[in-house]
């Protein structure tokens, strides 16, 4: 919810930053001419325009002046330094490609030193000014919560953390009474809203139980009588789900899970990442690794080089998952997981499983679109049928494409699942990944997977 205070804060910050960039640029030009190499005025005037454009692009990339960033001081600082660092790189690149790379070094040093100092100073002054305004004038929007249920308590905690809002408390606190029978009597809705109006509350967030949605018309009428704006928040905390709200046409749709990868932009980025990484691995690693391992596999055990097995994929659609064959031919591959000191595993198979080399053919699965580099590990069809019966949220992990590695695997939940509790933890991590996906999270998991391969994992057998 954007208030006038928050809008003014965003506008002021954006204008102040742009002014500081120009002041620092001018001072850098002045100091360089005075103590370093002289810069032609025409070059200065030409480059200051592009300096400003690059700053606007950098802050746009890191969303410095958006409502989500402005709400938290920590995010403002992070986004500011990221924007400044990117500005350095892009401005140098611009000067290089426009053949002005001989720009004065003294200018660069003085310009960016002044910029860092001025931004630090402006952020500290801004924080102090904001605290002073809140303490002496309290220009924030006064809000209260009606409904001290589980959802209401979570909502109150969120509102307390918003710098643009002044959370005054719950309506009804201190308004209850005890009747002659010793029963607790809560103040009526009308009385609670009257108290809110006389206390200077601007908006009330009503955390309403889902079975009381029929009370909304009466609440709206009463709120309008008292000139109080009401915001309704269904109490969904009782449900074990991470809801998101979508607007589809004229309808508000409540989706049971928050899934970043349901957005086409996120899916495109993840798919592009998969194609680039899998193509690189196939061209530069698999191309020479395959013949080398094929010879050793054939020498140690008769049979095919590759092992294929039907596994559960996205939306529970089965696909052929490929691996280097690490076991001797047997009749239990489709039902029995590999165990510690499994007699079926060949010597080269044990090495491949320890180093995850047996998974390399799955980069073809990724390239063809059946799998992703990162995601929940695909399970055998028999295990999917087994665990879907005994683990309540097991099938949620199949909303995603399966991966070669994943969040569960780098947290130690890979290999044999000796009991249901281990599979529950794996599912828990897979669902967390689904609800918190980002491209940077994928990059993090990929690097941690590589580190784990070289470090070795006790569950890799």
Provide structural commentary.
The protein folds into three domains: 4-136, no CATH class; 141-239, Rossmann fold (3-Layer(aba) Sandwich); 264-455, no CATH class. The longest helix is centred in the middle third of the chain and has 37 residues, at 264-300. The protein has 461 residues and is of the alpha/beta class. Helix 1 (4-35) runs antiparallel to helix 5. A four-stranded parallel β-sheet has the order 2-1-5-6, sandwiched between helices. A two-stranded antiparallel sheet has the order 3-4. A two-stranded antiparallel ribbon has the order 7-8. The protein is flat and about 80 Å long. The chain contains 15 helices and twelve strands. It has helices spanning 4-35, 41-61, 67-70, 73-97, 105-136, 150-160, 189-198, 216-225, 264-300, 347-355, 362-368, 381-390, 407-410, 420-435, 439-455; strands at 141-146, 165-170, 177-178, 184-185, 203-209, 229-235, 244-248, 251-255, 306-312, 318-324, 372-374, 403-405. Helices cover 53% and strands 13% of the residues.
Q: What's the layout of helices and strands?
A:
Blueprint: H1 4-35, H2 41-61, H3 67-70, H4 73-97, H5 105-136, E1 141-146, H6 150-160, E2 165-170, E3 177-178, E4 184-185, H7 189-198, E5 203-209, H8 216-225, E6 229-235, E7 244-248, E8 251-255, H9 264-300, E9 306-312, E10 318-324, H10 347-355, H11 362-368, E11 372-374, H12 381-390, E12 403-405, H13 407-410, H14 420-435, H15 439-455
Helix pairs in contact: 1-2, 1-5, 2-4, 4-5, 9-11
């Amino acid at each position: 919810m954007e208030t006038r205070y928050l809008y003014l804060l965003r506008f002021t910050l954006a204008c102040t930053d742009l002014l500081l960039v120009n002041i620092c640029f001018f001072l850098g030009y002045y100091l360089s001419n005075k103590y370093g190499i002289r810069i032609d005025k025409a070059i200065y005037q030409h480059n200051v325009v592009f300096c400003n454009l690059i700053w606007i692009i950098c802050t746009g990339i890191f969303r410095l002046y958006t409502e989500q960033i402005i709400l938290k001081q920590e995010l403002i600082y992070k986004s500011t330094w990221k924007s400044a660092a990117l500005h350095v790189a892009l401005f140098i690149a611009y000067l290089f490609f426009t053949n002005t790379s001989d720009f004065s070094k003294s200018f660069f040093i003085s310009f960016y030193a002044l910029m860092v100092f001025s931004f630090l100073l402006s952020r500290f002054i801004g924080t102090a000014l904001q605290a002073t305004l809140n303490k002496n004038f309290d220009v924030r929007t006064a809000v209260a919560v009606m409904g001290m249920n589980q959802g209401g308590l979570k909502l109150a905690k969120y509102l307390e953390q918003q710098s643009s809002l002044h959370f005054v408390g719950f309506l009804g606190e201190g308004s209850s009474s005890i009747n002659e029978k010793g029963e607790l009597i809560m103040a009526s809705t009308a009385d609670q809203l009257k108290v809110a109006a006389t206390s200077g509350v601007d908006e009330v967030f009503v955390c309403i139980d889902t079975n009381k949605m029929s009370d909304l018309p009466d609440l709206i009428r009463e709120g309008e009588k008292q000139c109080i704006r009401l915001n309704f928040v269904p109490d969904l905390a009782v449900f074990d789900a991470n809801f998101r709200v979508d607007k589809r046409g004229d309808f508000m749709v409540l989706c049971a899970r928050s899934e970043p990868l349901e957005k086409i932009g996120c899916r495109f980025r993840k798919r592009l990442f998969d194609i680039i990484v899998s193509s690189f691995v196939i061209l530069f690693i698999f191309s020479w690794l395959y013949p080398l391992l094929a010879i050793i596999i054939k020498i140690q055990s008769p049979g095919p080089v590759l092992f294929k097995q039907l596994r559960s994929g996205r939306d529970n659609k089965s696909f052929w998952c490929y691996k280097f064959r690490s076991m001797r031919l047997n009749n239990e591959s489709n039902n029995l997981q590999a165990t510690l000191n499994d007699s079926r595993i060949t010597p080269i198979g044990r090495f491949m499983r320890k180093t995850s080399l047996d998974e390399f053919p799955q980069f073809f699965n990724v390239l063809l679109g059946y799998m992703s580099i990162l995601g929940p590990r695909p399970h055998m069809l028999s295990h999917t049928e087994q665990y879907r019966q005994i683990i309540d949220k097991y099938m949620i992990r199949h909303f995603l494409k399966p991966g070669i590695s994943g969040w569960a695997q780098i947290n130690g939940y890979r290999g044999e699942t000796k009991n249901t509790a281990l599979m529950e933890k794996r599912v828990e991590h897979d669902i967390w990944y689904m609800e918190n996906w980002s491209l940077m999270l994928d990059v993090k998991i990929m690097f941690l997977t590589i580190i784990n391969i070289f470090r070795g994992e006790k569950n890799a057998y």
